[in-house]
Amino acid sequence: MSDRLTVLITGATAGFGAALARAYAASGDRLVLVGRRTERLEALKAELGGEVHVVTLDVRDRKAVEEAMAALPAPFDAVDVLINNAGLALGLNPAPSADLDDWDTMIDTNIKGVTYMTRAMLPGMVARDRGHIINLGSVAGTYPYPGGNVYGGTKAFVHQFSLNLRADLLGANVRVTSIEPGMADTEFSTVRFGGDKERAAKVYEGMTPMSADDIANVIHWVSKTPRHLNINVLELMPVMQAFNAFAVKRG
């Protein structure tokens, strides 16, 4: 594989995805940017210049994913790196009062969307004997917290799915990495709280969270390491985030 990569990024219109697009454009890589908001995709393409192909796509739609990925034009069809970045958390209610529609949306996006995109890209990577699947997990997949319920469950899936892909791909020069960030200041909390920016800002009050650029720079580095090296799992947190004590209900 040459130093120049063809990189497909889902959820490219904001947050980690947009930061990743800028990081790879800066290193001269070829980009396939996938997202649901056409105007944002086109604006990002115009900003970046270079070789950029945009695809308006909802990763929850299995048929649309299959058709869009099969229709990628050359040379964008020979994807070296798939970054499964599209994902979200919705709500923070405890399980007995959580919204089932929110649960469905998280499962459809964070689990099914990841599997659809991965399955669409893997055969070509195996045939070319090169490639890298990078999945965006979360520390929520390892460390539970009140209200994390289905979101944490979806990210635990991403972690285990990534490890199982490694088992299936033994013998092929296709790498798999699960990137698992903690608190990062993007649109994530605003989406989680239904657009309430004030409530979202309180999540990061009094501390310095990671930025989208922080995460993008780490992922960019991971994908540029030598091909014989696989980083299985990489967990990141801001210095001022750590692990809670066990919760105990007394009385």
Automatic annotation (TrEMBL):
Give the keywords, sorted: Oxidoreductase
Q: Can you name one GO molecular function term for this protein?
A: oxidoreductase activity, acting on the CH-OH group of donors, NAD or NADP as acceptor
Q: Write the protein's name.
A: NAD(P)-dependent oxidoreductase
Q: Where is the Ketoreductase domain?
A: 5-186
Instruction: Tell me which family the UniProt entry assigns to this protein.
Output: Belongs to the short-chain dehydrogenases/reductases (SDR) family.
Cite a single Pfam family from the UniProt record: adh_short
Q: Which CDD domains match?
A: SDR_c5 (cd05346)
Species of the source: Tistrella mobilis
Source organism, top-level taxon: Bacteria
